[in-house]
Design brief:
By secondary structure, this protein is mostly helical. It folds into two domains: about 60 residues, no CATH class; about 90 residues, no CATH class. It is built from nine helices and two strands, in the order E-E-H-H-H-H-H-H-H-H-H. It has a two-stranded antiparallel sheet with strand order 1-2. Helix 4 packs across helix 5 and helix 5 packs antiparallel against helix 9. The longest helix is centred in the last third of the chain and has 19 residues. The chain is flat and about 50 Å long. The chain starts with a strand and ends with a helix.
Length: about 160
């Protein structure tokens, strides 16, 4: 598997050394790409807590990105699946939309009991937003925009997947 090491000089700092053996992972990404991505998300796999910020100063950013961008992947790859599910339940639709309001308004509020929603919006404004999608049944077409945008971008690259 992965055999990465951290060389730490006496004054601190660190250098990440790793093996690049494509035989281990026959997938299209290299071991190096896999290990770098994996360790950005979870640095304790290769370095102690005290050196994480020196080896991976952007790990908090990338961890948060992974945590909060799942919706984008879902909407870009399975827009009709998520759309049908959200069109079937007004409470599910409200939860999905309001969670986005919580995260995008102020990420520090997401752990508050009400997500800090009333610090920025009225309940009427939030319900109006949800009701636009519910009454018109347009959440599926809304999330489909992610898929159409990603597909156009991928096609413009001219790379066959």
């Amino acid at each position: 598997m992965y055999s990465g090491k951290i060389a730490v000089p006496p004054g601190g700092g660190g250098i990440h050394k790793q093996v690049n053996d494509k035989k281990l992972y026959p997938a299209k990404i290299s071991v190096r790409e896999f290990c770098v991505a994996d360790n950005i998300i979870y640095p304790p796999l290769i370095v102690s807590k005290e050196y994480e910020n020196k080896v991976y100063p952007l790990s908090t950013f990338f961890s948060n990105l992974m945590l909060e961008m799942g919706y984008m992947h879902l909407q870009a790859t399975k827009p009709d699946t998520v759309g049908v599910g959200l069109n079937d339940s007004p409470v599910g639709l409200a939860a999905y939309i309001l969670e986005k309001f919580i995260t995008w308004t102020n990420s520090e509020w997401k752990n508050l009991e009400d997500g800090g929603l009333t610090k920025k919006f009225t309940y009427t404004d939030l319900l109006d937003n949800v009701m636009i999608y519910w009454v018109t049944g347009s959440i599926t077409t809304s999330v489909r925009l992610y898929s159409e945008t990603v597909n156009k971008a991928q096609m413009a690259l001219g790379v066959d997947g």
